[in-house]
Structures are given as structure tokens and as C-alpha cells.
Amino acid sequence: MPADRSAARLAAPAGFGRRLRAWYRRNARDLPWRRTRDAYQVLVSELMLQQTQVGRVIPKYGEFLTRFPTLQAVAAATPAQVCEAWSGLGYYARARNLHALARRVVRLPADPAALRRLPGIGPYTAGAVASFAYERPAALVDTNVARVLTRVFAPRLDPRSAAGRRAAWAIAERILPHTGRAAYVHNQALMELGALICTARVAHCGRCPVRPVCRSAGAPRRPRTGRAGR
Ligand code: SF4
Q1: What is the 3-state secondary structure (H, E, C) of the chain?
Q2: Which residue range forms the structural domain that includes residue 98?
Q3: 55 domain-assigned
């Protein structure tokens, strides 16, 4: 995603990251994929969450990892067997891509650029695996994060537009902490805020930790569509 320098200049009201990360440490949900740094397990969770809600993913995530505990186990199976284990989640292209990926590599790389060359891994998923599994300072932007960042930093931009998406990536890269551990918490926190507080249906500004520095706080807005999986 190309950087948008004009949008990047909009970024960084003081205290945003500090407020965000402090809130996350107090309010983060205990989700199974947050208990692991195994890159394969992180990837499975990210693929499942792309189109499916958290409540449906949790039991399937455990079942899938029991049947396919490693990337090697996926590679040894047939595409049909992987799709069978994926049943109930839909969007089977994700399962087929996981199988194709497992046949390409025995270990997931930590570098986002290398991850993006693998089947089914786009910019968001590459950032998520690099950040959540390897604690690399890699930015990530999905629908929830794009919505949060544009509301906070660039309220005139629609996060669903190409310009809004470019701006969100530029802002995400600019505000990312430089150390991997802080970047991990920061990325998780952005996604959690989009899932729980600054949602597509309603912005709960009254209980939002970044309200003092948000340029959209309390503003009336039309409902926007959002990512289902978080
Ligand atoms: S103050 Fe409101 S609009 Fe701004 S990030 Fe928080 S919930 Fe979203």
C-alpha cells in the first residue's frame, strides 16, 4: 500500500498511543490466539477471522489445530481434508490458500514482504503475523483499524475509499512504536478498540480511552459497514 504523505501529516495527536495501550492492558479480551506466538497458529486465527465472527471462530480454531497442529500436518493432507476441517466457517478459498502455503514453506518467515509472497497473505495478514508471532514492528490495517484511524486522525476521509485506506496505512506506519513488544500491544489495542468501542455500528465515545485526542469524538455519523470477524 503506497504511503500518503499528506495523510501522514494529519497523524499523531499527543497521547494517542499511550492512552490506547494503557486501555488495552486493562480491557483486552482473553482470546486463544493471544496466548500463542506460534506463527502458524497466528496465521490460522487471522485467516479464520477474516470473514467470520470471533464467537464462531473460537471453537473451530481449537478443533482445526487439534487436527492440524503444524504447517507440516497441513502440507501432508489433501486440500479436501483441509477444507473439511474448515467446514462451518465458509469462504473455503482461505483453507485452500493455507494448504497451498503449507506446500510452499515449512516455516513462516518473519519479514512482512516475504510473507506477502505466500498464497492468501495480503498486507494486513503479513503485518499481523509479523507483529503477533514475531513481535516485529510491522503496521497493519484491516477494516476496523482503518475506521479507528480515520475517525481519530482524518475525519473527512471515508475509510472504505482508496484514499481513506492509503491514509490509514500511512498513519498506522507513522504512529507505530519502534520496539516489537510495544508494537504488538499497539496493534492488538487498535483492533480491540475497533471491535469493542469505535465500532462500525456505533462509536461509544463516552467510554473511549482516546476521546481527548480524537478529531471525531461525539460527532454524529452514519453507520458504516465493518469487519465481521473481530
Ligand atoms: S472518541 Fe469516538 S470516534 Fe473517536 S475513536 Fe473513540 S469511539 Fe471512535
Answers
A1: CCCCHHHHCCCCCCCHHHHHHHHHHHHCCCCHHHHCCCHHHHHHHHHHHCCCCHHHHHHHHHHHHHHCCCHHHHHHCCHHHHHHHHCCCCCCHHHHHHHHHHHHCCCCCCCHHHHHCCCCCCHHHHHHHHHHCCCCCCCCCCHHHHHHHHHHHCCCCCCCCHHHHHHHHHHHHHHCCCCHHHHHHHHHHHHHHHHHCECCCCECHHHCCCHHHCCCCCCCCCCCCCCCCC
A2: 38-132
A3: yes
- Global pTM reads 0.90
Which residues surround ligand 1 with Cβ inside 6 Å?
A: 148, 151-152, 197-198, 203-205, 208, 210-211, 214, 216-217
* pLDDT tens track for 168-210: 999 999 999 999 899 999 999 999 999 999 999 999 999 999 9
Ligand 1: which of 19, 23, 24, 148 to mutate, most ligand atoms within 8 Å of CB? 148
Q: Which residues belong to the active site?
A: 46
Regarding whether 48 and 119 lie in a shared domain, the answer is: yes
189 and 142 both lie in a single domain: yes
What separation in Å is there between the alpha carbon of 218 and the centre of ligand 1? 7
